[in-house]
Design goal:
By secondary structure, this protein is mainly α. The chain has eleven helices and six strands. A two-stranded antiparallel sheet has the order 1-4. Helix 5 (111-120) packs across helix 6 (140-152), helix 8 (199-211) crosses helix 11 (264-277) and helix 10 (235-244) crosses helix 11.
């Protein structure tokens, strides 16, 4: 006699339980697997700044400045950038470049005396020498090199101070990594003045030589009474005289202050700076 096949589900309640389990078990397994896979992720609940700091690049590249390290300009370079303003034309009693007769008596005083006068400034009977030619950014050795360069062109046989910083600059790599340099801060947003010449900086580097002390009839910086009639001519006239030069009754203005490397925009910015200070 054969035994009839019987189902383990005897009641409707058992059927409902089986159906629910059929859905619940796969869903639970899927959730458990998902948690297992994602449990190793880092930073899900971290602050954004901490996450960014952790994934920061290992290193950064920093290029050396195009102008090179400070203090390595040679005598000829300093002359062209600063001293030429007065020494090329003989302004304010400055001995003209290459004039052996004018330089002879000065060379006779000795290298040390001339360098001291050039670095610290000097007021003599024939004229005045502003400290460091009016450019305080120059190092003492750079000024000394310029003195030697000019004196040698007038018959001296002196030796320029060695540019000791050059060797260090050459041996040091112009590219460094973050092992020595921290990551740079975010660049500031561009402003309306981006790319505009800095009139104050140009004044201090070039114009201050004459306008700082009123040399060769130059209107002194900030002297409102002296600047007033010039300002009255109009700023375009001042631009023309400053860029092209002017030989007036009270003095001489060399083209671009004697620094022909300046652009017209640079000269105008310096004029604007001086005019603003005299109003």
């Amino acid at each position: 006699m054969t035994e009839e096949h019987s189902s383990p589900i005897k009641t409707p309640k058992q059927l409902i339980i089986v159906v629910l389990l059929a859905f619940a078990i796969p869903i639970s397994l899927a959730v458990l697997i998902s948690q297992l896979v994602t449990s190793g992720e880092k930073g899900v609940h971290e602050d954004d700044s901490k996450v960014i700091a952790r994934i920061q690049a290992v290193g950064t590249v920093v290029l050396a400045e195009a102008s090179g390290p400070k203090g390595v300009l040679g005598g000829e370079q300093v002359y062209a950038q600063v001293c030429k303003t007065c020494h090329e034309t003989g302004l304010a009693g400055a001995p003209k470049f290459g004039d052996n007769a004018a330089w002879g008596a000065r060379i006779a005083q000795g290298e040390s005396t001339m360098e001291q006068h050039a670095v610290a400034g000097f007021q003599g009977k024939a004229g005045m020498m502003p400290a460091k030619g009016g450019n305080a950014d120059l190092t003492d050795d750079e000024v000394r090199r310029a003195v030697v360069f000019m004196a040698n062109k007038a018959g001296a046989a002196w030796k320029e101070p060695a540019a000791t910083a050059v060797a260090a600059a050459v041996s040091a790599s112009p590219i460094t990594t973050a092992a020595a340099q921290p990551a740079p801060a975010a660049a500031p947003p561009a402003t309306a003045n981006a790319g505009k010449p800095d009139g104050k900086k140009i004044f201090e580097g070039t114009c201050n030589v004459c306008h700082g002390a009123g040399i060769a009839g130059a209107p002194k910086f900030g002297d409102k009474a002296v600047w007033a009639p010039r300002i009255a001519q109009g700023v375009n006239v001042l631009y023309t005289h400053a860029i092209g030069g002017l030989q007036g009754k009270s003095g001489v203005m060399p083209p671009k202050g004697g620094n022909l490397e300046l652009s017209d925009a640079d000269v105008k910015a310096a004029v604007d700076y001086m005019v603003a200070a005299a109003k």
